[in-house]
Design a protein that fits this description.
Helix content: under 10%
Oligomer: single chain
Structural class: mainly beta
Number of strands: 11
Largest sheet: 7 strands, mixed
Strand content: over 45%
Shape: globular
Radius of gyration: 13 Å
Distance between the termini: 40 Å
Number of helices: 0
Length: 124
């Protein structure tokens, strides 16, 4: 069974940086769609960054130029490097994976596998 486990969240001041990691176990992914999503209470989950099976990434407009998604297939790990964090980036961040997709976009929210989420809090 595929499991996704996020790490690297926490609290940081505005302008700071964090790197989230997501380790995929139970299967060796290589050409999957992978992504990071976030959610705050009473709002819909939104796509932050995704990377498709070709390695092409795309980002939500709100994070372009500040966040970078990457993956290390040898370590079965997905990353989200976040710089210049803002209070509005505070949310629960979720890792997602989908072996059935080849292309994916941040508006895709029906990924097959999801992590349990990790909190990111940015204070002003």
């Amino acid at each position: 069974q595929v499991q996704l486990v996020e790490s690297g969240g926490g609290s940081v001041q505005a302008g700071g940086s964090l790197r989230l990691s997501c380790v995929v176990s139970g299967n060796t992914y290589s050409r999957w769609c992978m992504g990071w999503y976030r959610q705050v209470p009473e709002k819909e989950r939104e796509g932050v960054a995704v990377i498709d099976a070709e390695g092409k990434s795309n980002y939500a407009n709100s994070v372009k130029g500040r966040f970078t998604i990457s993956q290390d297939n040898a370590k079965n790990t997905l990353y989200l490097q976040m710089h210049s964090l803002k209070p509005e980036d505070s949310a629960m961040y979720y890792c997602a994976a989908d072996p059935t997709r080849y292309y994916c976009y941040t508006h895709d929210r029906t990924f097959v596998y999801w992590g349990q989420g990790i909190q990111v809090t940015v204070s002003s």
